[in-house]
Design goal:
The complex is a heterodimer of chains A (363) and B (548). Helices cover 70% and strands 2% of the residues of chain A. Chain A contains 14 helices and four strands. Chain A has helices at 10-32, 43-66, 76-95, 108-112, 128-152, 157-176, 202-228, 230-240, 242-247, 252-278, 288-301, 307-326, 328-345, 349-362; strands at residues 188-189, 193-194, 197-198, 280-281. A two-stranded antiparallel ribbon of chain A has the order 1-4. In chain A, strands 2-3 form a two-stranded antiparallel ribbon. In chain A, a hairpin with a 2-residue loop joins strand 2 (193-194) and strand 3 (197-198). The longest helix of chain A is centred in the middle third of the chain and has 27 residues, at 202-228. Chain A is globular. Chain B is mainly α and 548 residues long. A five-stranded antiparallel sheet of chain B has the order 4-3-2-1-5. In chain B, strands 6-7 form a two-stranded antiparallel sheet. In chain B, strand 2 and strand 3 (96-100) form a beta hairpin. Classes of the chains: A mainly alpha (363), B mainly alpha (548). The interface between A and B is large, with 42 and 41 residues.
Chain lengths: 363, 548
């Protein structure tokens, strides 16, 4: 704790404490207590919370690149979706003969498209370890190739934002195509089991929630550690004055590349945890709007704080759930207003506001 | 309007001809007007023999009976049950809109059961078709004659051939003459004389005509038993050579067509991107609501068209300034209300304007419903310019191309020659220095943003002519227009123009090989790679301004 300076940060401690409570108490209650107990949470609540936690992990990973390195990536959702697709492919292969067409090898949509054999890139996804490797490897490699090209030729600022958006847009268009072999428009869905356990069962849901929470907590601690090391200092310096860091002799593009790839991998993990909890992955996850929403979670929570991204992600998504349920027309209005309001009135986000309040109280 | 006036002219000329022929033959023969009446009264009678007689009598009367014969062929000629008069009825949803067959005067709308259709046998129908063809061949309007010639190309009979030959001698219109020649040569290809056939093929290979290409293709194919349909090998080789020649021309024309489609797509991209380029170039601000400003322009067109549904042409012209004003006003509001608080923070501006775009989208969805609206195209913009059988250019795309160039030139002049343009360029080059020289930068920013937004609105008017107008209209173009700006480079309008056209043409050339979606993906990947090589676009800014 001392190593990463957590003890001094009251807000961060609070967030971590609440997270730990959600991660451990709710699943344990659900697993141990009978279904009619007052402390037993409904399956809906559990999977909703699990979804929020994966979003929080996604927001956290974006805060690392945007808040600490100043790279406004508008295509971060692509890495999330790729991780999700890797997980989805594993879950598809687990369906086996229980699909509508009962084909032991081919997923339903391929039988429907009259495909005869499994495309080469689907091979190996019947193995859990291989799928998990791909969850981090595919986003990581894409981020590496893209980042290596972009950072080496010093594409910065809005240019970088726009080409990351083009990246996710291109992937969106590609995944919509049936010929790609990822289920086209409908994506991958109708999953049956995960590692042999029924994916619909409450116990699996509870464990997935716990896993998401644990992944989030450890990712937070790791990120916190990264930004407190010398590496983290250099990265923050790049955000504030890139050319000065370069003149001091640091290879700026390598630092940026490293942090970009790491964040992409975290996003991939978030996607992999998200898919079994919502039961579907489709190309709309690649839409530029989704990636922009991630940015607004981070902006709202307060960027450059890490736990701010967690607060923002949960808060925005909770209001989305409530508002789209109550009156769907209002949601886009309020999301738009949040975009405008946060950037103008709350440049430091909710965390900045809370910090100021705390200081006022102390003095 | 236009079609009506042509009809009027036709009718007028028919009456004039009638009067003219009356004057000449009036004293010796039965006047044609009463002849027409006679023929019609025979037509009304039941038996098919009577009808055939009447049709022949009508045929003798010349072009004046063409409308009646055509109506008869189309099954639109009826007898009224009430007074057994002959009427032409046009089907509408409630019944028939009637006009008198003899005089052409309107007779109102009547329900379907009040009339009896005049039926035809198949034989009679064939004969009628031929008669109509003959009459059309001597019609006054060259377009009708041309259509008649084309229809005759498919008729296998010597009669049409002699008819066409006779017409060829007196035909004055060049296009019709040309068409008659092609049809006659096509018929020569059936000749039993080998030399005539070879000569016909030789002459036809210079024609840009689909029928010729199809015919030559058919000659070179084999039938089920594996023998060539054309037995003579010499003729086959001549035909093959002719086909190769025609196909090479066809390729050139199809490439020209692709370039045209590419240019018109490019024009749309340029229109969408050019406003963006101005705001980005001058203020370094990415306006994510740009697409929604285009959508506002398109909806303005829709609303104006709803207000004056009978004047499509005028409403489109009116929409251009209206859309400019509305989008420019909204743009200035965005600048004054939001962006001016965020100067020097381009990434935050991007987010805030994105928020605005969501709000605009949802407002339109709430006001106009989420369904797509279609904006009608005025007559002078629909249809296509038929250059030859292989190449036709659609008018709406052509107009958009012209419109895009006009807007571009106008903008260039504004930036070059006006006071505002001078100030805009000064601020773009060096904001602080411009301020020091007394240029009101805040005002210039607002005006620039208004100008850029107004052009987005104008682009929306153009878009409304080629796609449906819906709340997602802007989103569909926003990534593309960013790509154009990034590819072309900031601070140079020519860069935007060139980039837009290059991307448009590249897209259209890739489409046949890879499909529309993959073409788009390839272009996106190309731009992403291009940015690596030239991070500042095709035409980068030079000098100190480039550093920041």
């Amino acid at each position: 704790m001392k190593l990463i300076g957590l003890g001094d940060d009251k807000l961060a401690m609070t967030v971590l404490f609440v997270l730990a409570a959600v991660t451990f108490i709710i699943p344990i209650c659900n697993l141990m207590l009978p279904a009619d107990s007052a402390l037993h949470f409904s399956a809906y609540t559990v999977s909703l919370l699990g979804k929020y936690l994966t979003f929080a992990l996604l927001g956290l990973s974006l805060d690392l690149v945007w808040g600490y390195c100043g790279i406004l990536a508008l295509g971060h959702g692509a890495f999330f979706a790729l991780g999700g697709y890797a997980m989805g492919m594993y879950l598809m292969r687990q369906i086996g003969t229980r699909g509508v067409y009962g084909d032991p090898l081919l997923p339903d949509f391929m039988v429907f498209l009259n495909w005869k054999e499994l495309p080469w890139y689907w091979l190996g996804f019947d193995q859990f370890w291989f799928a998990m490797l791909m969850v981090v490897l595919v986003p990581g490699v894409l981020a590496f190739v893209f980042g290596w090209l972009a950072f080496r030729s010093r594409v910065t600022g809005v240019y970088l934002s726009i080409i990351t958006q083009a990246l996710t847009y291109a992937l969106l268009l590609a995944f919509f195509r049936n010929e790609m072999g990822f289920g086209g428009n409908n994506g991958l869905t109708d999953f049956k089991e995960l590692l042999g356990f029924n994916i619909q069962s409450e116990a699996v849901r509870a464990i997935l929630l716990m896993l998401s929470g644990m992944a989030l907590i450890s990712a937070y601690l790791i990120c916190r550690w990264i930004v407190s090391t010398k590496l983290g200092r250099v990265i923050t310096a790049i955000r504030d004055q890139e050319s000065r860091v370069r003149f001091l002799g640091y290879r700026v593009e390598m630092f940026k590349l490293w942090i970009f790839v790491f964040a992409a991998m975290l996003a991939g993990i978030a996607g992999a945890l998200y898919v079994p909890q919502v039961g579907i992955i489709n190309p709309s996850e690649f839409s530029p709007l989704n990636s922009l929403e991630i940015v607004i979670w981070v902006a709202m929570g307060g960027r450059g704080t890490l736990y701010g991204a967690i607060i923002g992600a949960v808060l925005v998504n909770y209001s989305k759930t409530v508002l789209t349920g109550l009156m769907p027309e209002i949601w886009l209005f309020s999301l738009g207003a949040v975009f405008v309001g946060v950037t103008i009135l709350l440049p430091d986000g909710i965390v900045g506001l809370l910090k100021r309040r705390l200081q006022e109280l102390q003095s | 309007m236009k079609a009506n006036s042509i009809k009027c002219c036709l009718r007028l000329s028919a009456i004039l001809m009638l009067v003219f022929s009356l004057a000449i033959h009036g004293d010796q023969e039965i006047p044609p007007a009463s002849k027409l009446q006679d023929a019609l009264s025979i037509l009304k009678q039941g038996s098919m023999a009577d009808r055939e007689l009447a049709v022949n009598q009508l045929a003798d009367l010349g072009a004046s009976s063409l409308p009646i014969l055509q109506a008869l062929l189309d099954g639109k000629l009826f007898t009224l049950k009430s007074d057994t008069s002959l009427v032409i009825g046009i089907d509408n949803n409630h019944g028939y809109t009637l006009s008198d067959a003899l005089t052409g005067s309107e007779k109102g709308v009547i329900e379907r059961s009040a009339v009896t259709k005049i039926n035809l046998t198949n034989n009679l129908r064939v004969a009628l078709r031929k008669i109509i063809g003959q009459l059309q061949l001597s019609a006054d309007d060259p377009a009708i004659r041309l259509a008649a010639v084309k229809a005759m190309a498919n008729e296998e009979d010597d009669n049409t051939q002699s008819l066409l030959k006779a017409r060829a001698l007196i035909e004055k219109d060049e296009d019709v003459q040309q068409a008659i020649n092609v049809v006659l040569l096509l018929k020569d290809m059936n000749s039993s004389d080998k030399l005539i056939r070879i000569k016909a093929i030789d002459l036809l290979k210079e024609q840009n005509n689909r029928d010729v290409a199809n015919r030559l293709n058919a000659m070179l194919e084999k039938d089920e038993t594996g023998n060539f349909i054309e037995a003579d090998s010499e003729i086959r080789s001549v035909a093959k050579a002719a086909l190769i020649k025609i196909n090479s021309r066809l390729q050139i024309y199809s490439a020209m067509e692709t370039v045209f489609f590419g240019l018109s797509l490019g024009a749309v991209l340029v229109l969408a991107a050019i406003g963006l380029a101005i705001t980005f170039g001058v203020m370094g601000v990415i306006n994510m609501a740009h697409g929604e400003l285009m959508m506002l322009g398109a909806y303005t067109t829709y609303v104006i068209q709803q207000l004056m549904p009978n004047h499509l042409g005028i409403s489109i012209i009116l929409s251009i300034p209206a859309a400019f004003m509305i989008s420019a006003l909204v743009g200035i509001l965005i600048e004054r209300g939001i962006i001016r608080f965020l100067y020097g923070r381009p990434l935050e501006t991007l987010l805030a304007t994105f928020g605005v775009s969501l709000i605009l989208q949802q407002s339109v969805r709430s006001i106009f419903s989420p369904l797509n609206r279609s904006v009608a195209t005025p007559e002078w913009m629909s249809g296509s310019l038929q250059i030859n059988d292989f190449l036709s250019l659609t008018w709406n795309r052509f107009y958009i191309l012209v419109f895009c160039l006009l807007v571009f030139m106008l903008l260039l002049q504004i930036l070059k020659r006006t006071r505002l343009g001078l100030e805009v360029r000064a601020v773009a080059q060096n904001r602080t220095m411009a301020k020091a020289m007394g240029i009101p930068t805040a005002k210039v920013d607002a005006m620039t943003f208004g100008l850029g937004s107004g052009i987005a609105g104008v682009a929306g008017v153009a878009l409304s002519q080629i796609t449906n107008v819906g709340p997602n209209l802007g989103q569909a173009y926003i990534v593309d227009s960013f790509m154009v700006v990034v590819f072309g480079g900031v601070g140079n309008l020519w860069g935007t123009l060139v980039a837009g056209f290059i991307l448009g043409i590249a897209n259209k050339f890739l489409e046949p090989f890879s499909g529309a979606v993959l073409a788009k993906i390839l272009v996106l990947i190309f731009i992403i790679l291009f940015i690596q090589k030239r991070p500042r676009g095709l035409f980068p800014q030079k000098g100190r301004a480039a550093d920041s």
